[in-house]
Amino acid sequence: MGLLISKIWSLFGNEGRSIQWNINTFTNQTAVVFPEHKLVLVGLDNAGKTTILYQLLLGEAVHTRPTIGSNVEEVVWRNLRFVMWDLGGQQSLRSAWNTYYTNSEFIIMVVDSTDRQRLGISREELHRMLAHEELSKACLLVFANKQDVKGSMTAAEISQQLDLTCIKQHPWHIQACCALTGEGLHLGLEWIASRIKKK
Q1: Where does Mg(2+) bind (predicted)?
Q2: What three-state secondary structure class fits 21?
Q3: Is 43 in contact with 89 (CB distance < 8 Å)?
């Protein structure tokens, strides 16, 4: 009797393993893998790059410290997988930005819309970056951040100060936003998604 029960159990046990294998096989075959797109977030220190990164990742404002080096996160949005590199914006770190350019499809430049005094520096850094060979095919999204602050420059003002209309080799777009609330960020991603569809 014990031998009979043992044989019956072994039959069901094998069947169970077979069913499990079939489920695993089906799951592996139907798993959706989103294409990966590399983005670099650049801008001067205190522009709000890291706040934007984590607002996109978590959907909330996160208290951040100045980035030393870089942060990298994977953000999945509307069947698109973005690997976002957030690069420190202090003067001593900007010379290292070019080490992250390889295979970057998009540049997101974050500008502090209240920082009128350093907008010229942002312009210089932007045009130097766009001249780099590794970014010859990259698209540019400018986030005009901190629009919630009274007296901040409009996206049109920032566009003029950055000489965006002079950029002919790179598709570009400027988007007003507020990193703390997330307002405007997804409109920027929609523009990126539209560029991906055109490729």
Answers
A1: 50, 67
A2: helix
A3: yes
Which fold, 36-198? Rossmann fold (3.40.50)
Which one is catalytic: 90, 91, 160, 169?
A: 90
> SS3 of 34, please?
coil
25 labeled part of a ligand binding site: no
Joined tokens for residue 137? 């095919």
Note whether 148 and 112 are within 8 A (CB).
no
CA distances from 59 to 18, 63, 77, 107, 197 (A): 41, 13, 12, 21, 25
Render pLDDT for 137-155 as a digit per residue (tens, 0 to 9): 999 999 999 999 999 999 9
pLDDT digits (tens, 9 = 90+) for 147-189: 999 999 999 999 999 999 999 999 999 999 999 999 999 999 9
**Does 90 qualify as catalytic in the annotation?**
yes
- Burial per residue of 167-183, b for 16 or more beta-carbon CB atoms within 10 angstroms, e otherwise: eeeeebbbbbbbbbebe
